[in-house]
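One-letter codes give the sequence; the fold follows as tokens. An example follows:
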Amino acid sequence: MTEVFTGSFTQQEPIPEEGIAAALAVLRHGRLHRYNTAPGEVAETALLEEEFAALTGAKYCLAVASGGYAMGCALRALDLQAGEAVLTNAFTLAPVPGAIAAAGGRAIFIEVTEDLVIDFADLEAKARSTGARFLMLSHMRGHLCDMTALMALCDALGVTVIEDCAHTMGAAWNGVASGRHGAIACYSMQTYKHINAGEGGFLISDDPALMARAVLLSGSYMLYAKHRAAPPPEAFEGVRMVMPNVSGRMDNLRAAILRPQLKVLGERVARWDALYRRLEAGLTATPGVALVPRPAAESFVGSSFQFRLPDWSPARTALFLQRCVARGVELKWFGAAEPVAFTSRYDHWHYAEPQSLPQTDRILAGLIDLRLPLTFTPQDCEIIARIIRAEALSVGQGPEPEGVWAPAIQ
């Protein structure tokens, strides 16, 4: 009998009971706005910022409406000028170049390596040719480059690093938490990320002037003293009347849902690692399938899994996807001609100027991706691996199919 997987690739775990109780308390008193507090009360949002700063070891933290807003806010706080070049990974998702465009910048895409990290040689060449001051470093799908080498290169080039940690909350490089290398880091709490509020974002930094500007940009009005993980009042004095209000605050309802999830982040990371490793073991040494090596220095969060089908034709890859989906395994393909749901690539983003990235084109042409929600068990990952392996062997070693088809999945 042909094995079929019946689990859902988009079903998250429920919110912890502590978060549900805290959310109900906020709903009952009605003070959802972060600055609407009763006498003596500390807002849930202020407490969340304090707790995330402590978790990451950062001096300052700001909670905002989304990860995309966090990136745009970081660029504005760094005084990005209209039309200014911002370097960023070619392998990323649409909110990254979207944030650059929304802040008035011009995305310059950097090639990706076969390990799915930013190409240092292309980064250096484009930094020099464009004079870019900023790198929006996307730790796409949780893959960390050599952060020690990256920071040395960017320091030498005079490039300020903004870390997009949407896929690396809880990860580290050589024991240093993801987000603690650059000048400022951005995180997401969208449903498919590592803690779940539906939407939400964090910024962290040790730079008081930078974070004072970010707090004002987020829409603090003159209520910044109500923050507990913000710079001291004197950091705001020179900028409080000149920074525009680009409102993007987090509310107390989302903060109440998130605070208990911070307590279990470490346990979630360990569970994701078990799922990832089980799937990896099941696909190791599959002919025609190239797995992505994970460096010893990288402590990653295995909430998604990627592999490559090098040199497969589009028709063969599409048939493989079709057969996997028919057996309940939802795979995403970065080589598809058209964007599908959340999956797109740099040449689909027509608000960015056209750019030639042949290395990235070759790698994304065979790049396959799948989610690993914590509602899966290690046994589920074994089933998924068996299905992928069987179809890769069947399609990869079969005759060249005719036509191209890709499934419409999320």
The chain has a mean pLDDT of 96. The CA atoms of residues 290 and 308 lie 5 Å apart. The chain has two domains: 17-263, 265-396.
